[in-house]
Write a structure and sequence with these properties.
Blueprint (H helix, E strand, L loop, with lengths): L8 H13 L6 H9 L2 H5 L6 H15 L12 H9 L4 H15 L7 H14 L4 H6 L9
Helix pairs in contact: 1-4, 1-6, 1-7, 2-6, 5-7, 6-7
Length: 144
C-alpha cells in the first residue's frame, strides 16, 4: 500500500475514498456531494482528484489481496490503523469524517461497510461515535 505524507490532502482523501468503496461500489452522487460540500477545497485537493485517489486505493487493495475477490479483503486492522495514522490532525480528522459521512449518505443509505469504516476511523482517532454524541448533548460536534 502506498503511503502519503502525514495530514496531506491525499492521505485525508484516501480515508474518504475508503469509506466510499466499503460497500463495494461508488455512486456518482457520492462524488457530487463531496464536490458540493467543497470537499476538494476542505482537504486541499485539486478539483477532480478524488476519483484518482479512489482508483489508486482500489489498485493498492487489490494488489494486497488478489485472491479474496473482495476489495477490502486484505485490509486488516493493522493496515487500517496505518491508513488512519496518516491523518493525526484533529481538525482534519473532523473534516474527513464529516465529508465521508455526507458523501457515503448521498444515496440515502449508509451501508454496513461504510459504517464499519467510519466507526474504525473514530476508534483509531479516539473520537466518540455518533450514538454516544446523541446521548451526550454536551459532546462536541464533529463538523469543522
Amino acid at each position: 500500500m502506498r503511503t502519503y505524507p502525514r495530514n496531506s490532502p491525499e492521505a485525508a482523501a484516501r480515508i474518504v475514498a475508503l469509506v466510499l468503496i466499503a460497500d463495494g461500489h461508488v455512486c456518482r452522487s457520492e462524488f457530487e456531494v463531496f464536490d458540493q460540500l467543497q470537499g476538494p477545497r476542505e482537504l486541499g485537493l485539486a478539483p477532480g482528484a478524488l476519483p484518482r485517489i479512489v482508483q489508486s486505493l482500489c489498485e493498492d487493495l487489490l494488489m494486497g489481496d488478489p485472491g479474496s475477490g473482495s476489495m477490502l479483503g486484505g485490509l486488516d486492522d493493522d493496515a487500517l490503523a496505518a491508513l488512519m495514522a496518516e491523518v493525526d490532525d484533529p481538525a482534519l480528522q473532523a473534516r474527513v469524517l464529516r465529508l465521508a459521512m455526507a458523501a457515503a449518505s448521498a444515496d440515502r443509505h449508509l451501508a454496513d461497510g461504510e459504517a464499519v469504516v467510519l466507526a474504525a476511523a473514530r476508534r483509531h482517532w479516539g473520537l466518540p461515535d455518533e450514538a454516544a454524541q446523541a446521548h451526550h448533548p454536551a459532546a462536541t460536534p464533529l463538523a469543522a
